[in-house]
Amino acid sequence: MALGLYILLRLNKIEWVKVIGLLGFNAFLFLIACSESSRSGVYLHFVSASAVAIALYRYEQWKRSFLFVSLSIMFLILVNVKTFNILPFREHTEFIDNLLFTLNVLVSAFIAGYSMYMILSMNHDAENYLRQKQLTIEAQNKELQKTNEELDRFVYSVSHDLRAPLSNIKGLTALMTMDTQTPREEFIKMIESSANRMEIFIRDIEHYSRNSRMELNMEYLNLHDLVADIIKSLSHFDNALKVSIENQIPADYVVYADSYRLRIILNNLINNAIKYADLAKEKPYVRVSADLENGFHHIKITDNGIGIKEEHKQKVFGMFYRASASSKGSGLGLYIVKESADKLQSQVTVQSEYGKGSVFSLRLQMIEK
Ligand code: ADP
């Protein structure tokens, strides 16, 4: 029988092993108990057999454990109320009977105790697992709630911010047909500016959505070239010609990052530094620099622009947050910067003094080639 169980176990027929094992154990006990005096206490093993059945089947298969417990109880009653002469009866001296009784009490107590321990330990594991699951679900719920709130705000702001320049364009075209005094070029300029605003807004939304969807594609990038490219692409913007934009990054400075995200981050930060330049100052400037400290790149965008008031500093990375009335942007730029930095497992921070200027820093982990 032991060999049969072993083969079944090797074949991974666990359910069969349990059924045959418990049936065999109960039948074996029955035969032994029938052939001995009850003084030897063999019947005690029916209690162990019940405990083993409960431990093996647990609550999920309570019907099976109930069946095996009933079988053990039935055998226990049978051997105590009736005499069965299946095996030859073995008579022991009182001393041997006492010895066997003590042994059987000890062994059955051990088996029953161990089975209970197994049940308790499985319950404990299950409880821990559930607690862990609950924590995960709570965290996911919080995340979901945050996403839902963001989505609400997003839809509200998007429709509002898209409608504003559109209404402007509609109003201007209506005015154009009525007002014959003002030169057409002025209207066209204003319409163009509204259209530009709309374009920037749509571009920001696209960046936001792509950042959350796209997989990271990490690679070694020449930071100097990337910044030079961004500065070039921004050169036709309003303030760009009036501001001195300095790329102070050494020509061979290399970082390991996702080029799409890093470009979005730097593009937004440099663009903001140009947009919020203080043209009343003698030499408005924007400086982009990078240095390595304790295994981290610190990429800094420094400007002597209008600066950010203390009360806005912590909020500028929020969705649709505009810290100044002069902002013509979507209020999404720094939010996208923060989200993209999170994706790169990097941190972006701001230091700013209202009226003096700002420093935005990106702390990016250095990974050697
Ligand atoms: P926006 O589209 O309005 O530029 P951002 O999310 O890029 O939105 O920036 C949020 C706000 O932070 C801006 O409205 C602006 O008031 C402020 N800000 C961002 N960068 C600078 C900067 N370099 N200097 C001064 N203010 C800034």
Describe how the helices and strands are arranged.
Layout: H1 2-10, H2 14-34, H3 45-57, H4 62-81, H5 94-178, H6 184-213, E1 218-222, H7 223-234, E2 244-247, E3 254-258, H8 259-275, E4 285-293, E5 296-303, H9 310-313, H10 333-343, E6 347-353, E7 357-365
Parallel strand pairs: 2-4
Antiparallel strand pairs: 1-3, 4-5, 5-7, 6-7
The structure holds adenosine-5'-diphosphate.
Would you kindly provide a written description of the structure presented here, covering whatever features stand out?
The chain is of the alpha+beta class. It has a five-stranded mixed sheet. A two-stranded antiparallel sheet has the order 1-3. Strand 4 (285-293) and strand 5 form a beta hairpin. The relative contact order is 0.07. The chain has helices at 2-10, 14-34, 45-57, 62-81, 94-178, 184-213, 223-234, 259-275, 310-313, 333-343, and strands spanning 218-222, 244-247, 254-258, 285-293, 296-303, 347-353, 357-365. Helices cover 60% and strands 13% of the residues. The structure holds adenosine-5'-diphosphate (ADP).
